[in-house]
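ok trying again, last paste got cut off:
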Amino acid sequence: VPSLVTGDWNHWIYTAITFLVISCPCALVLSVPLAFFSGIGAGSKRGILFKGGISLEAMKNVRAVVMDKTGTITQGNFKLQEAVPANGTDADTLLALCASCEQNSTHPIAQSILAAARDKQISLDTPSEVEEIAGHGIRAALPQGEVLCGNRKLMDQFHVPVNAAALNYGTEVFAALNGTFIGHLVIADTIKPEAADAISAIRSKDIVTAMLTGDAQENADAVAKATGIDEVHARLLPQDKLETLKEIRAAHGAVMFVGDGINDAPVLGRADIGIAMGAMGSDAAIEAADVVLMDDDPLQVAKAIRISRKCLRIVYQNIIFAIGVKGICLILGALGIASMWLAIFADVGVMIL
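nice, full thing came through this time. structure:
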Protein backbone atom coordinates (compact mmCIF):
# COMPACT_ATOMS: atom_id res chain seq x y z
CA VAL A 1 0.00 0.00 0.00
CA PRO A 2 2.80 2.56 0.78
CA SER A 3 4.32 1.71 -2.61
CA LEU A 4 1.19 2.96 -4.37
CA VAL A 5 1.74 6.32 -2.72
CA THR A 6 5.54 6.61 -2.79
CA GLY A 7 6.30 4.53 -5.86
CA ASP A 8 9.23 2.98 -3.96
CA TRP A 9 8.34 -0.65 -4.70
CA ASN A 10 11.79 -2.04 -3.94
CA HIS A 11 11.92 -0.64 -0.38
CA TRP A 12 8.40 -1.66 0.67
CA ILE A 13 8.50 -5.17 -0.83
CA TYR A 14 11.79 -5.69 1.04
CA THR A 15 10.11 -4.37 4.20
CA ALA A 16 7.10 -6.70 3.71
CA ILE A 17 9.36 -9.75 3.25
CA THR A 18 11.36 -8.73 6.35
CA PHE A 19 8.10 -8.39 8.35
CA LEU A 20 6.98 -11.82 7.11
CA VAL A 21 10.23 -13.49 8.23
CA ILE A 22 10.04 -11.82 11.66
CA SER A 23 6.43 -12.96 12.16
CA CYS A 24 7.23 -16.66 11.54
CA PRO A 25 6.33 -18.43 14.82
CA CYS A 26 9.22 -20.94 14.77
CA ALA A 27 10.49 -19.95 18.22
CA LEU A 28 7.10 -20.54 19.83
CA VAL A 29 6.17 -23.63 17.82
CA LEU A 30 9.43 -25.39 18.65
CA SER A 31 10.39 -24.13 22.11
CA VAL A 32 7.14 -24.93 23.91
CA PRO A 33 6.81 -28.61 22.84
CA LEU A 34 10.56 -29.15 23.29
CA ALA A 35 10.36 -27.83 26.86
CA PHE A 36 7.60 -30.35 27.61
CA PHE A 37 9.60 -33.14 25.96
CA SER A 38 12.56 -32.15 28.08
CA GLY A 39 10.43 -32.29 31.25
CA ILE A 40 9.04 -35.71 30.31
CA GLY A 41 12.59 -36.91 29.61
CA ALA A 42 13.87 -35.55 32.93
CA GLY A 43 11.12 -37.46 34.71
CA SER A 44 11.85 -40.67 32.81
CA LYS A 45 15.50 -40.57 33.86
CA ARG A 46 14.32 -40.54 37.47
CA GLY A 47 11.72 -43.29 37.05
CA ILE A 48 8.75 -40.89 36.77
CA LEU A 49 6.65 -41.57 33.66
CA PHE A 50 4.44 -38.63 32.62
CA LYS A 51 1.70 -39.63 30.17
CA GLY A 52 2.13 -36.51 28.04
CA GLY A 53 2.44 -32.75 28.40
CA ILE A 54 -1.09 -32.33 29.78
CA SER A 55 -0.14 -34.38 32.86
CA LEU A 56 3.02 -32.33 33.31
CA GLU A 57 1.14 -29.04 33.04
CA ALA A 58 -1.75 -30.07 35.33
CA MET A 59 0.63 -30.94 38.15
CA LYS A 60 1.79 -27.36 38.65
CA ASN A 61 -1.69 -26.34 39.88
CA VAL A 62 -1.89 -29.00 42.61
CA ARG A 63 -2.85 -27.61 46.03
CA ALA A 64 -3.42 -30.88 47.89
CA VAL A 65 -1.77 -34.31 47.66
CA VAL A 66 -4.00 -37.15 48.81
CA MET A 67 -2.33 -40.53 49.40
CA ASP A 68 -3.62 -44.01 49.99
CA LYS A 69 -2.03 -45.62 53.07
CA THR A 70 -1.32 -49.25 52.25
CA GLY A 71 1.35 -49.65 49.58
CA THR A 72 1.91 -45.91 49.23
CA ILE A 73 2.87 -44.62 52.67
CA THR A 74 3.31 -48.09 54.14
CA GLN A 75 5.03 -51.10 52.58
CA GLY A 76 1.86 -53.15 52.39
CA ASN A 77 3.27 -56.12 54.32
CA PHE A 78 2.22 -56.92 57.87
CA LYS A 79 5.00 -57.50 60.38
CA LEU A 80 5.23 -58.44 64.04
CA GLN A 81 6.01 -55.25 65.91
CA GLU A 82 5.94 -56.47 69.51
CA ALA A 83 5.28 -59.57 71.62
CA VAL A 84 3.84 -58.71 75.05
CA PRO A 85 3.76 -61.79 77.36
CA ALA A 86 1.66 -62.04 80.52
CA ASN A 87 1.16 -64.28 83.56
CA GLY A 88 4.70 -65.67 83.63
CA THR A 89 5.01 -66.51 79.92
CA ASP A 90 8.09 -65.31 78.02
CA ALA A 91 7.94 -63.65 74.58
CA ASP A 92 9.41 -66.61 72.65
CA THR A 93 6.93 -69.07 74.19
CA LEU A 94 4.06 -66.71 73.36
CA LEU A 95 5.24 -66.41 69.77
CA ALA A 96 5.81 -70.19 69.46
CA LEU A 97 2.30 -71.04 70.66
CA CYS A 98 0.65 -68.48 68.36
CA ALA A 99 2.73 -69.56 65.34
CA SER A 100 1.92 -73.23 66.02
CA CYS A 101 -1.79 -72.38 65.89
CA GLU A 102 -1.45 -70.35 62.68
CA GLN A 103 0.61 -72.86 60.65
CA ASN A 104 -2.20 -73.73 58.23
CA SER A 105 -3.70 -70.25 57.91
CA THR A 106 -3.22 -68.11 54.79
CA HIS A 107 -4.33 -64.86 56.47
CA PRO A 108 -1.72 -62.05 56.12
CA ILE A 109 -1.59 -61.59 59.90
CA ALA A 110 -1.04 -65.33 60.41
CA GLN A 111 1.73 -65.25 57.82
CA SER A 112 3.42 -62.37 59.63
CA ILE A 113 3.40 -64.38 62.89
CA LEU A 114 4.92 -67.39 61.14
CA ALA A 115 7.56 -65.19 59.48
CA ALA A 116 8.56 -63.74 62.87
CA ALA A 117 8.88 -67.26 64.33
CA ARG A 118 11.04 -68.36 61.39
CA ASP A 119 13.26 -65.30 61.78
CA LYS A 120 13.89 -66.26 65.42
CA GLN A 121 14.33 -69.93 64.42
CA ILE A 122 11.66 -71.00 66.89
CA SER A 123 10.57 -74.65 66.57
CA LEU A 124 6.82 -75.16 66.20
CA ASP A 125 4.53 -77.95 67.40
CA THR A 126 1.95 -79.56 65.15
CA PRO A 127 -1.54 -79.24 66.63
CA SER A 128 -3.54 -82.44 66.97
CA GLU A 129 -6.76 -80.51 66.49
CA VAL A 130 -7.46 -77.13 64.91
CA GLU A 131 -10.74 -75.21 64.82
CA GLU A 132 -10.99 -71.92 62.95
CA ILE A 133 -13.70 -69.68 64.40
CA ALA A 134 -14.73 -67.25 61.65
CA GLY A 135 -14.12 -63.60 62.54
CA HIS A 136 -12.59 -64.51 65.86
CA GLY A 137 -9.46 -66.67 65.54
CA ILE A 138 -8.22 -70.22 66.10
CA ARG A 139 -8.57 -72.84 68.83
CA ALA A 140 -5.88 -75.52 68.68
CA ALA A 141 -4.87 -78.55 70.73
CA LEU A 142 -1.10 -78.55 71.29
CA PRO A 143 1.12 -80.66 73.55
CA GLN A 144 1.07 -77.78 76.07
CA GLY A 145 -2.74 -77.78 76.16
CA GLU A 146 -5.62 -75.90 74.53
CA VAL A 147 -4.45 -72.68 72.91
CA LEU A 148 -6.67 -69.82 71.79
CA CYS A 149 -5.21 -67.33 69.29
CA GLY A 150 -7.30 -64.48 67.90
CA ASN A 151 -8.98 -61.17 68.62
CA ARG A 152 -10.60 -59.92 71.81
CA LYS A 153 -13.96 -61.39 70.77
CA LEU A 154 -12.39 -64.87 70.88
CA MET A 155 -11.20 -64.25 74.43
CA ASP A 156 -14.69 -63.05 75.43
CA GLN A 157 -16.31 -66.08 73.82
CA PHE A 158 -14.23 -68.46 75.97
CA HIS A 159 -14.50 -66.20 79.04
CA VAL A 160 -10.77 -65.46 79.21
CA PRO A 161 -10.07 -62.21 81.11
CA VAL A 162 -7.70 -59.93 79.17
CA ASN A 163 -5.55 -57.37 80.95
CA ALA A 164 -3.79 -55.87 77.89
CA ALA A 165 -3.65 -52.13 77.32
CA ALA A 166 -5.35 -50.73 74.22
CA LEU A 167 -2.99 -49.77 71.40
CA ASN A 168 -2.75 -46.69 69.26
CA TYR A 169 -1.48 -48.64 66.27
CA GLY A 170 -1.55 -52.08 64.71
CA THR A 171 -3.70 -55.16 65.24
CA GLU A 172 -3.70 -57.11 68.51
CA VAL A 173 -3.62 -60.91 68.45
CA PHE A 174 -4.48 -62.30 71.91
CA ALA A 175 -3.45 -65.74 73.17
CA ALA A 176 -4.61 -67.98 76.00
CA LEU A 177 -3.34 -71.36 77.27
CA ASN A 178 -5.78 -73.64 79.06
CA GLY A 179 -8.10 -70.72 79.76
CA THR A 180 -5.37 -68.39 81.07
CA PHE A 181 -4.39 -65.23 79.22
CA ILE A 182 -0.67 -65.45 78.27
CA GLY A 183 -0.17 -62.22 76.31
CA HIS A 184 -0.70 -60.59 72.96
CA LEU A 185 1.14 -59.84 69.72
CA VAL A 186 1.11 -56.49 67.93
CA ILE A 187 0.93 -56.80 64.14
CA ALA A 188 1.21 -53.70 61.96
CA ASP A 189 2.01 -52.63 58.44
CA THR A 190 5.46 -51.01 58.35
CA ILE A 191 5.84 -47.40 57.25
CA LYS A 192 8.21 -46.84 54.33
CA PRO A 193 11.52 -45.38 55.58
CA GLU A 194 11.30 -42.48 53.14
CA ALA A 195 7.62 -41.65 53.82
CA ALA A 196 8.25 -38.92 56.42
CA ASP A 197 10.83 -37.17 54.19
CA ALA A 198 8.42 -37.41 51.24
CA ILE A 199 5.58 -35.77 53.19
CA SER A 200 7.95 -33.06 54.45
CA ALA A 201 9.14 -32.34 50.89
CA ILE A 202 5.57 -32.03 49.63
CA ARG A 203 4.51 -29.74 52.50
CA SER A 204 7.55 -27.52 51.87
CA LYS A 205 5.95 -26.61 48.53
CA ASP A 206 2.89 -25.15 50.34
CA ILE A 207 0.79 -28.20 49.47
CA VAL A 208 -1.64 -29.80 51.92
CA THR A 209 -1.20 -33.56 52.49
CA ALA A 210 -4.01 -35.98 53.29
CA MET A 211 -4.34 -39.75 53.72
CA LEU A 212 -7.30 -41.98 52.79
CA THR A 213 -7.56 -45.49 54.20
CA GLY A 214 -10.04 -48.19 55.09
CA ASP A 215 -8.14 -48.93 58.30
CA ALA A 216 -9.26 -48.08 61.81
CA GLN A 217 -8.96 -44.46 62.90
CA GLU A 218 -6.35 -45.31 65.55
CA ASN A 219 -4.03 -46.99 63.04
CA ALA A 220 -4.44 -44.15 60.55
CA ASP A 221 -3.75 -41.50 63.20
CA ALA A 222 -0.57 -43.32 64.26
CA VAL A 223 0.74 -43.42 60.68
CA ALA A 224 -0.15 -39.75 60.13
CA LYS A 225 1.61 -38.74 63.34
CA ALA A 226 4.75 -40.68 62.37
CA THR A 227 4.92 -39.16 58.88
CA GLY A 228 3.56 -35.62 59.43
CA ILE A 229 0.42 -35.86 57.28
CA ASP A 230 -2.01 -32.94 57.70
CA GLU A 231 -5.39 -34.66 57.28
CA VAL A 232 -6.53 -38.23 58.00
CA HIS A 233 -9.68 -39.89 56.63
CA ALA A 234 -10.10 -43.46 57.92
CA ARG A 235 -12.66 -46.32 57.76
CA LEU A 236 -13.38 -45.52 54.10
CA LEU A 237 -14.84 -47.87 51.51
CA PRO A 238 -13.69 -47.39 47.87
CA GLN A 239 -16.78 -45.30 47.06
CA ASP A 240 -16.20 -43.20 50.19
CA LYS A 241 -12.71 -42.31 48.98
CA LEU A 242 -14.20 -40.67 45.89
CA GLU A 243 -16.58 -38.53 47.95
CA THR A 244 -13.77 -37.56 50.35
CA LEU A 245 -11.59 -36.55 47.40
CA LYS A 246 -14.33 -34.19 46.21
CA GLU A 247 -14.54 -32.64 49.67
CA ILE A 248 -10.78 -32.07 49.78
CA ARG A 249 -10.87 -30.49 46.31
CA ALA A 250 -13.66 -28.14 47.41
CA ALA A 251 -11.64 -27.13 50.48
CA HIS A 252 -8.18 -26.69 48.96
CA GLY A 253 -8.29 -26.66 45.14
CA ALA A 254 -6.72 -28.97 42.54
CA VAL A 255 -6.02 -32.41 44.01
CA MET A 256 -3.40 -35.05 43.24
CA PHE A 257 -4.12 -38.62 44.33
CA VAL A 258 -1.39 -41.22 44.84
CA GLY A 259 -2.37 -44.90 45.07
CA ASP A 260 -1.54 -48.40 43.92
CA GLY A 261 -4.49 -50.74 44.48
CA ILE A 262 -7.27 -51.78 42.11
CA ASN A 263 -9.78 -50.02 44.40
CA ASP A 264 -7.81 -46.78 43.90
CA ALA A 265 -8.48 -46.72 40.14
CA PRO A 266 -11.77 -44.72 40.33
CA VAL A 267 -10.16 -42.09 42.57
CA LEU A 268 -7.06 -41.89 40.35
CA GLY A 269 -9.29 -41.29 37.35
CA ARG A 270 -11.34 -38.54 39.03
CA ALA A 271 -8.45 -36.63 40.61
CA ASP A 272 -7.02 -33.61 38.80
CA ILE A 273 -3.78 -35.59 38.54
CA GLY A 274 -3.40 -39.26 39.44
CA ILE A 275 -0.10 -40.96 40.33
CA ALA A 276 0.19 -44.75 40.46
CA MET A 277 2.91 -46.73 42.20
CA GLY A 278 4.10 -48.81 39.25
CA ALA A 279 6.40 -51.42 40.78
CA MET A 280 3.74 -53.13 42.93
CA GLY A 281 0.64 -51.32 41.68
CA SER A 282 -2.31 -52.97 39.97
CA ASP A 283 -2.78 -52.73 36.20
CA ALA A 284 -6.07 -50.87 36.72
CA ALA A 285 -4.36 -48.19 38.83
CA ILE A 286 -1.53 -47.77 36.32
CA GLU A 287 -4.02 -47.46 33.45
CA ALA A 288 -6.14 -44.85 35.27
CA ALA A 289 -3.19 -42.71 36.42
CA ASP A 290 -1.66 -39.72 34.63
CA VAL A 291 1.80 -40.39 36.07
CA VAL A 292 3.46 -43.69 37.02
CA LEU A 293 6.30 -44.05 39.55
CA MET A 294 8.50 -46.99 38.63
CA ASP A 295 10.08 -47.66 42.04
CA ASP A 296 7.19 -47.03 44.51
CA ASP A 297 9.24 -44.36 46.32
CA PRO A 298 6.93 -41.65 47.77
CA LEU A 299 9.83 -39.16 47.50
CA GLN A 300 9.25 -39.28 43.75
CA VAL A 301 5.96 -37.41 44.21
CA ALA A 302 7.80 -34.26 45.35
CA LYS A 303 10.34 -34.72 42.53
CA ALA A 304 7.52 -34.94 39.99
CA ILE A 305 6.01 -31.68 41.28
CA ARG A 306 9.43 -30.01 41.14
CA ILE A 307 10.01 -31.18 37.55
CA SER A 308 6.56 -29.95 36.52
CA ARG A 309 7.03 -26.50 38.04
CA LYS A 310 10.52 -26.07 36.59
CA CYS A 311 9.35 -27.20 33.16
CA LEU A 312 6.45 -24.74 33.17
CA ARG A 313 8.79 -21.92 34.28
CA ILE A 314 10.97 -22.65 31.26
CA VAL A 315 7.91 -22.71 28.97
CA TYR A 316 6.79 -19.30 30.22
CA GLN A 317 10.33 -17.92 29.87
CA ASN A 318 10.43 -19.12 26.27
CA ILE A 319 7.03 -17.63 25.45
CA ILE A 320 7.81 -14.25 27.02
CA PHE A 321 11.28 -14.09 25.43
CA ALA A 322 10.08 -15.10 21.96
CA ILE A 323 7.05 -12.79 21.90
CA GLY A 324 8.99 -9.91 23.47
CA VAL A 325 11.83 -9.99 20.92
CA LYS A 326 9.44 -10.54 18.02
CA GLY A 327 7.16 -7.72 19.15
CA ILE A 328 10.03 -5.22 19.17
CA CYS A 329 11.34 -6.44 15.81
CA LEU A 330 7.85 -6.41 14.23
CA ILE A 331 7.45 -2.74 15.17
CA LEU A 332 10.86 -1.95 13.66
CA GLY A 333 9.96 -4.04 10.60
CA ALA A 334 6.64 -2.28 10.07
CA LEU A 335 8.42 1.07 10.18
CA GLY A 336 10.92 -0.17 7.62
CA ILE A 337 13.84 0.15 10.06
CA ALA A 338 14.61 -3.57 10.56
CA SER A 339 16.94 -5.26 8.08
CA MET A 340 16.69 -8.85 6.86
CA TRP A 341 19.57 -9.76 9.19
CA LEU A 342 17.51 -8.61 12.18
CA ALA A 343 14.52 -10.55 10.80
CA ILE A 344 16.58 -13.76 10.61
CA PHE A 345 17.78 -13.18 14.18
CA ALA A 346 14.19 -12.62 15.36
CA ASP A 347 13.16 -15.90 13.73
CA VAL A 348 15.99 -18.45 13.70
CA GLY A 349 18.18 -16.79 16.33
CA VAL A 350 15.39 -16.53 18.92
CA MET A 351 14.33 -20.10 18.10
CA ILE A 352 17.82 -21.42 18.89
CA LEU A 353 18.14 -19.29 22.03
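cool. The mean pLDDT is 86. The radius of gyration is 32 Å.
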